[in-house]
Structures are given as C-alpha cells and as structure tokens.
Write a structure and sequence with these properties.
This protein is α+β, with helices and mostly antiparallel strands. It is built from 20 helices and 21 strands. β1, α1 and β2 form a beta-alpha-beta unit. α4 packs antiparallel against α5. The structure holds flavin-adenine dinucleotide (FAD). Flavin-adenine dinucleotide (FAD) binds next to α1, β2, α2, β6 and α9.
C-alpha cells in the first residue's frame, strides 16, 4: 500500500506541534491529526501558565541567582527518587533534559520570538537537605504571554509549513488503532468526528461521521496524559498515596482522556511508571468553568498556614509551594481528601497566583501596564479577587470564631475546634517579631524575602495572622486537582518506543506527556515544575529530528 505521508503525528498539542514542525523543516511531509477542532490547536499548553524550567539563565543572573547544571541535576535527582531498573531511560532523559535547560533551550525559543517575564519564580522549594526534593534556587521562568506565548512560535511554524504543503492538518480525526504489520507500525486508523463549533477547551461531541486510515513510515504518539479521566487516575493511583480521593477537581480539558495510551499499549508498546502522577493539593472549583469539573490550582507563596481537615497544622516542611507530592501523601493519610489554607488579606494580595493563561490576563496579554500592578496594587490580582468573592471554596470573615464556624458549615461537620486552631495560630504569631526563629515556616518566609523576586511580588512581609490590620481573615478549602501523568511509553533518546519484548517497535515514537515527557518518566516521582512544557519541547524536538532522518 502506498504511504499517504512521511510521518503521522497523533495529537496537535505542544509536543505534537514541535515534532511536526521539526519534521517539516527537514523537508519531509507530515499528517498532524487531532480529535479536537482547529480551535483547540496547542492542547493543554495553551491553558498553561507557560512556566519553564531553565538553568543559569540571564534572567536568573540578573536577579543575583547563582545556578548551574550540577546544582540543577542534584535537585532533579533529589526530586525524582529514581528507584527501579525501569528508570534506565528516564534517567538518561533527565540528564539530557537538564543539559538542554542549561544550554540551548532558551536561545532556541528566543530565536523563534519567545520571551520571558523577568522575575523568576521559586516553585517546589523542598525544605529537606541538599540532596532531597526541591529547587535550591528559583528556576520557574514564566513565558511572556503565558501558555499562548509558548504555543505561538510553533503554531506559526506549523501554519507556514502547511502553506508550503509540508504539514497537513486533520482535525476531528480520532485515532482508534495503530496499523501494525509484522511488528512494524505502518499507520493509524480511526473515526472522523462531526465538526464542532464549541469554543476552545469546552468538551466536544464524539459523534462519528466517517472513518479513515493513513499510512506512513513513522507514527509519533503525542496524545497527552490521563488527567481528564478520573477513572484512569483512580485505577493508576499508587498504594503509597493511600486510597484514591473520592472528590477531585479536573485541571485539564476533557481531551486529556488517556484513550490513545490504551490504544498504543494494546498495539504492543511498553508503558512504564504508570503509578507516577503529579496532582496538586491546592485545587479550587472554578466559579466560571470551561471544561467539566474545571479546577484551578493556586500557585501559593510561602506564608499561608496549612491545616488538615481536622485542624492539625501540616508538619515541616509541608508548607505552601514546598513539596507537592509530600503534601498529597500527607493529606491522603488523614483520611480526608481536602485541607485548608488560613491566611490574611495581606497574604492573598501578594502571594496568591492562579495557574492558567486565562487566570493571568496581564501576562497573557503581554501588558506591562497591567503586569506592573502585581508589585504596586492594593488588592490581589482581579482573577484572585473574583475567586475570593465568587469561589465556592473561599470564606472571608473579620474574626477567627466566625471563620472557623463558617469552615465547619462549609464541610457540614464540626471537625474544626476554634480553641485548637487559635492555639496554633497564636503560637505561630509569637514567632513573628524576630528574624531568627524556631518555626521553620516563618524561617522559610525570612529566607524567601532575601530573594528579590519573592520580596517584590511573591512573599508578604512577615506579620501576625491575627493582626486585624492585615485582615480580613481568609480560609480556603483546598481540593485535589488532577493534572499530569509522569509515567508513559518507554523511549530511547530518539523517542523511539520500546515494545513489551524489550526491543524498539519499528516506526513508533512517543513524545510529551504520553511518553512521561521522555523515556517513560524523566521526572521520576516528582517535578521541579516548569518541566512539562519543556519536556514537550525537548521530546518533540528529538523525535521530530530523529523521525525525519529515519524516513527515506
Ligand atoms: C492549566 C494548566 C497549567 C499548566 N501550567 C504549566 C506550566 O506552567 N509549566 C509546565 O511545564 N507545564 C504546565 N502545564 C502542563 C503542560 O501544559 C502539559 O503537560 C503539556 O502541554 C502536555 O502537552 P502534550 O502535547 O503532551 O499533550 P496535550 O496538550 O494534552 O495534547 C494532546 C493532543 O492529542 C489529542 N489526542 C488525544 N488522543 C487522541 C486520539 N486518539 N486521536 C487524535 N488526537 C488525540 C488531544 O485532543 C490533544 O489535542 C499546565 C497544564 C495546564 C492544563
């Protein structure tokens, strides 16, 4: 049978776009298929905050941050906790990816017009020793224009390639099977879905109006993870994190359905580390949802007090923004699937950011005039204030008794005792007057404020939570939010997929979230953040270049 094209890419998210554009640039032809309509081009990356892990960047150096490949690799291994034979390729991807982040990642993007917001964020601060989890220094570089800012250059390149006849887009083409002959992947087959006019991110119909089969020398699976499919998330939930949460909010659109992962596995591809996932513990019900169960993650600064459902303060170092997986493990061990932040207006104003391009109109629209208000504004950013006013998880009161009573009313159970919460907050508040203290969270606040970026826009001046001048008091009920899939198809550094027999499956490649961002899980157990978009860029680039060379 003649081929329809040189390479087929399944999924027009960031990883698929990068792979397709690299192939097109080498002069080869690509069919780029997606089950969604054209309005969804870019997949999850469009909705993302656009945060990128970079090492020893000019932005870091301008802020006085001393970073290096060695320090970043030490942090990566501390976070990953690789612990099994299957981690062979994930480790090789980790080494290569950290090198990419320390060398040509920034310049490669810059040459395509991508720019970075100058204040570098400090995600996953860790709080253990030097070899433990966490970023030793700030490394979270926000794309100017957030998610759309990172999609833009690749969408532009893809459209130019389409105009040259190198890329053919096939939207509403849902792949249902791989065509495999004698172990060689030769193409894909599936259903043509009815056209949709639903806006970007809104679930679209699965009505079938036709079928298709396309053949090529190589197929690249770039179909994303499983975060939109709670059944799959619960199925893969690891024992170490307790029983799966009863209630979760959804941090990704419905197209992140994990279906193509099952299809590729059924064709013989080897899926590893499926129990490794990256879900957040600071999820909010979106008062203005776009996709089903739409949850928004708070990107918290370090000062909110964190209590479990029964009112016990989370132990050191489980402070906001320190250790997502540690927090998830701890919260699930309480027997409840939610927890609480208690904070002040002064803290929310400076420390609450919400992840997602639509929650950051200042950065997303590339408006300096609006963005500058992050440092100068009297209130929190408008999207945060909107959640405070309209969000189902927020309680605002002028005094602690009223706050605690409302928290109990919200969950319909008197789990929280006023005297208990009051004792813990007052104890913490007594630690505020000296810059050298015993309370490790307060120590962390002082530490954070030595970094100019945090002092400017991320960490409130230390103050007593119960000081009315910093009020009103705010409680936020935090839900588990599904997001990223850390495991995936085992791949070599060219993104070629291994089969269940341990040999490369000829003709098959996997990239982005479907490949655990490289190798089948280059993050190991935990992420240092900003590493997912970067993992799509790196794996998409490697696969595109390798596949272009491999096809005749
Ligand atoms: C709100 C939000 C904020 C985020 N913020 C950050 C951040 O700041 N930094 C960071 O590093 N990461 C962030 N991420 C994560 C990051 O955006 C994703 O991990 C990444 O974009 C995944 O890209 P992908 O190309 O692998 O998959 P996707 O973007 O999921 O794209 C996969 C595509 O494949 C299509 N598809 C699936 N199955 C089929 C099939 N059978 N047939 C045809 N098409 C199919 C889907 O429709 C989809 O378009 C964020 C994510 C979200 C949602």
């Amino acid at each position: 049978m003649p081929n329809d094209t040189d390479v087929i890419v399944v999924g027009a998210g960031l990883a698929g776009l990068v792979a397709a554009t690299e192939i097109a640039d080498s002069g080869k032809r690509v069919l780029l298929l997606d089950q969604e309509g054209e309005q969804n081009l870019g997949g999850q990356a469009f909705w993302s905050f656009g945060g990128l892990f970079l090492v020893n960047s000019p932005e870091q150096r301008r802020l006085g941050i001393k970073d290096s490949y060695e320090l970043a690799l030490q942090d990566w291994y501390g976070a990953a906790g690789f612990d099994r034979d299957e981690d062979h390729w994930p480790k090789r991807w980790a080494d290569a990816y950290v090198a990419f982040a320390a060398t040509d990642k920034r310049e490669w993007l810059r040459a395509m017009g991508h720019r970075i917001f100058p204040v570098v964020g400090w995600a996953e601060r860790g709080g253990y020793d030097a070899t433990g989890h966490g970023n030793s220094v700030p490394r979270f570089h926000v794309s100017w224009g957030t998610g759309p800012g990172i999609v833009e250059p690749f969408e532009r390149r893809a459209r130019e390639a389409a105009a040259r006849g190198r890329i053919t887009f096939k939207f509403r083409h849902r792949v249902d099977s791989l065509i495999v002959t004698n172990g060689v992947v030769e193409g894909v087959a599936g259903a043509i879905l009815a056209p949709t006019s639903e806006p970007r991110g809104v679930s679209s119909s699965r009505d079938v109006v036709g079928e298709f089969a396309f053949r090529a020398q190589a197929v690249i699976v770039a179909s994303g993870g499983i975060g939109g499919n709670h059944d799959l998330v619960r199925q893969n939930w690891p024992k170490r994190l307790g029983t799966p949460p009863k209630h979760m909010v959804t941090g990704v659109p419905a197209h992140v359905d994990g279906r193509m992962i099952g299809i590729t596995e059924a064709a013989g591809a080897r899926l590893i580390n499926r129990h490794r996932m990256w879900h957040y513990v600071e999820g909010l019900h979106n008062w203005n949802p776009i996709w089903p169960g739409h949850g928004i993650r708070i990107l918290p600064g370090p000062s909110s007090m964190w209590f479990d459902a029964t009112g016990k303060r989370l132990p050191s170092p489980l402070y906001p923004g320190y250790d997502t997986l540690g927090q998830l493990e701890h919260i699930m061990a309480t027997g409840y699937d939610y927890s609480w932040f208690v904070l002040t207006q002064s803290i929310i104003k400076k420390e609450f950011a919400l992840s997602g391009s639509e929650q950051n109109p200042d950065l997303t629209s590339k408006s300096w005039r609006m963005t500058i208000k992050r440092a100068t504004n009297k209130g929190a950013p408008a999207p945060v204030e909107a959640f405070k006013a309209k969000g189902a998880d927020f309680i605002v009161r002028t005094n602690l008794p009223d706050l605690v009573e409302a928290m109990n009313v919200m969950v319909g159970e008197k789990l929280l005792k006023l005297e208990d919460i009051k004792r813990q907050i007052e104890a913490r508040d007594r630690e505020i007057d000296n810059p050298y203290v015993k309370d490790t969270q307060v120590m962390g606040i002082h530490n954070a404020r030595r970094y100019i970026g945090d002092r400017l826009i991320r960490t409130a001046k230390p103050h007593r939570i119960l000081d009315p001048h910093h009020g009103p008091l705010i409680a936020v009920k935090l839900n588990i939010l599904t997001r990223k899939t850390l495991g995936g198809f085992e791949t070599d550094l060219d993104a070629r997929v291994f089969g269940n027999n341990g040999a490369i499956m000829p003709g098959l490649y996997a990239v982005g979230e479907a490949a655990g961002f490289g190798g089948g899980g280059m993050h190991g157990y935990r992420s240092l953040e900003g590493t997912f978009l970067g993992g799509c860029l790196f794996s998409g680039r490697n696969a595109g270049r390798a596949a272009a060379k491999a096809v005749a």
